[in-house]
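Fill in residues.
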């Protein structure tokens, strides 16, 4: 590996204002007139992030297809989840939390990026002509927000985006996770006994599972790696995104335990075991935090990506997996999108419940807020940090938007949709009113009079049994209008962080870097540095530093680069640094010189 040199022009330059981008800005809206109801006891102490050693740690745990009613703390009677029920009793339990979509890939994209399914890059599961969805270098995740502040970051488990290859913009390592272990693509994650898993950019073979053998259960490996990450970084601020594949189909679990003798079918026994395996995994994390003395400085968030599934012989009605709600995975009724959500931290999160309608798009601004990191202002999520600190003064969404464009249909889901399970559909909640509409097929641009529209009052009818659309046409039309406003074929993003471009080939070429402040607060002492191999001649054509970048402003630097000889392609790295309040943040970008 050649040695590298860093190039920085020291003179300050006046920042250049960015052109305004269009798009919805939920973050700029005033709180809703409707106030959520809370039953909380204050936390032992208010949270504060000062020096790096004092920063909060974060563990985000995402179940795969865990229904609203599948935890004891949400009413489950047949499956046992004692560790999660204890967290719910000790922490804050959300009764109206929402996944961003009723299926996996779009839900996870929105959770990571803070953009709802009318704006996010990935808006459907990898079935049909679109294939496997992928993130792009324009996507900014909550891991990137915290990594810029020096957090150690890891994704252990299911990523759910393609391609199934390293060194590409959709890889977790390129989207803020310095450590990755698990499955890259959606389909690979369906295998509970895989013959390989990814570790960063390397395939790690699992010989014991070769040839269809089922000796090593992947959730056990995922749990082991997650605990190892916490142990390795116990003296540093860290973010762990833990995404096991349980209880997704197929229902496979070698640890049937207490369910072995139940008078149920095999798939139902194994599904129950998977839910308890998830519970045990969460308990292992909190036990590790407690043993290391980290429980009081760590915020744990546990949730799911959509409602309960009915695949591979699993019967969600046996377990009442959707609780009092209508619908399952793939439905835009509450049972398909409302999910359990528990926040726990003994010293930083109050004990109680809240019914604030809370989409998982709120995670990015919330984690950034709690950590003290800048975040993009053009996301749809709103920070719930005040709520997690025990305050009632938390911003509320004017509306929540949901989109479904998924070719797969299951029997119960289709029956709930009255035979419209394969149609494109939208839903929008504003206050207690929620509208759902079904397209005549897969055509989003079909005239409104060809859509089937339903309207429900969730305060009086949480099970969505009484359609009010015919009785309240004006209210239904108003929510449909908001659906139109919530969808953008391409959602233009405001620049945030660093971009890098190599222009030209051969011995001489130009490298252009931009550091953009897309956050809500000014940045001070901004600068750009370029790493290049030793022996390369790099000359800055303009200044690479600015005393201040106000929100919406950027710093752009061009370097003229000459290399001694043209050989193999070389990766160049640019770092943009700035002071955000009392903290320095660092963003990086790479590009290849051919």
């Amino acid at each position: 590996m050649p040695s590298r040199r860093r190039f920085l022009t020291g003179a300050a330059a006046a920042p250049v204002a960015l052109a305004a981008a269009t798009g919805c800005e939920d973050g700029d809206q005033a709180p809703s007139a409707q106030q959520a109801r809370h039953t909380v006891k204050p936390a032992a102490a208010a949270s504060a992030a000062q020096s790096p050693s004092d920063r909060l740690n974060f563990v985000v745990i995402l179940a795969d297809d865990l229904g609203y009613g599948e935890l004891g703390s949400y009413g489950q009677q047949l499956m046992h989840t004692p560790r999660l029920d204890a967290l719910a009793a000790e922490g804050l339990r959300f009764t109206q939390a929402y996944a961003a979509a009723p299926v996996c890939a779009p839900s996870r994209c929105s959770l990571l990026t803070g953009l709802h399914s009318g704006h996010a890059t990935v808006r459907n599961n990898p079935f049909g002509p679109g294939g496997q969805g992928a993130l792009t270098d324009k996507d900014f995740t909550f891991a990137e927000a915290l990594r810029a502040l020096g957090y150690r970051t890891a994704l252990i488990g299911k990523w759910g985006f393609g391609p199934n290859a390293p060194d590409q913009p959709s890889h977790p390592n390129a989207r803020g996770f310095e450590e990755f272990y698990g499955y890259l693509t959606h389909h690979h994650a369906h295998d509970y006994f895989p013959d390989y898993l990814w570790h960063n950019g390397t395939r790690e073979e699992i010989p014991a599972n070769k040839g269809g053998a089922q000796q090593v259960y992947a959730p056990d490996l995922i749990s082991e790696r997650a605990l190892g990450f916490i142990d390795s970084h116990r003296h540093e601020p860290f973010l762990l995104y833990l995404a096991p594949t349980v209880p997704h189909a197929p229902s496979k679990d070698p640890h049937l335990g207490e369910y072995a003798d139940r008078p149920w079918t095999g798939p139902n026994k194994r599904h129950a075991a998977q839910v308890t395996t998830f519970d045990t995994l969460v308990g292992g994390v909190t036990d590790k935090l407690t043993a290391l003395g980290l429980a009081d400085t760590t915020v744990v968030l546990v949730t799911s990506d959509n409602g309960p599934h009915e695949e591979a012989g699993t019967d969600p009605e046996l377990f009442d997996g959707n609780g009092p709600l209508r619908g399952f995975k793939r439905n835009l009724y509450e049972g398909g999108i409302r999910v359990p959500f528990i926040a726990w931290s003994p010293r930083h999160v109050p004990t109680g419940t809240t019914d604030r309608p809370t989409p998982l798009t709120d995670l990015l601004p919330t984690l950034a807020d709690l950590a003290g990191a800048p975040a993009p202002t053009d996301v749809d999520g709103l920070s719930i940090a005040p709520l997690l600190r025990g305050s009632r003064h938390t911003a509320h969404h004017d509306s929540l938007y949901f989109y479904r464009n998924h070719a797969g249909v299951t029997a119960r889901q289709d029956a709930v949709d009255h035979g419209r399970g394969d149609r494109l559909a939208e839903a929008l909640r504003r206050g207690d009113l929620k509208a759902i509409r079904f397209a005549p097929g897969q055509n989003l641009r079909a005239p409104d009079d060809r859509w089937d529209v339903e309207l429900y009052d969730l305060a009086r009818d949480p099970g969505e049994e009484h359609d009010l659309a015919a009785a309240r046409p004006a209210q239904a039309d108003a929510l449909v209008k908001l659906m139109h406003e919530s969808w953008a074929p391409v959602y233009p993003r405001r620049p945030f962080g660093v971009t890098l471009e190599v222009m030209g080939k051969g011995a001489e070429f130009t490298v252009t870097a931009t550091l953009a402040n897309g956050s809500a607060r000014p940045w001070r002492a901004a600068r750009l540095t370029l790493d290049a191999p030793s022996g390369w001649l790099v000359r800055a054509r303009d200044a690479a530093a600015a005393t201040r970048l106000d929100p919406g402003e950027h710093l752009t630097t061009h370097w003229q680069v000459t290399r001694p000889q043209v050989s193999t392609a070389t990766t160049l790295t640019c770092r943009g640094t700035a002071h955000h309040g009392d903290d320095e943040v660092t963003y990086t970008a790479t590009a290849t010189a051919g």
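Residues 1-5, 8-35, 45-50 have pLDDT under 50 and may be disordered.
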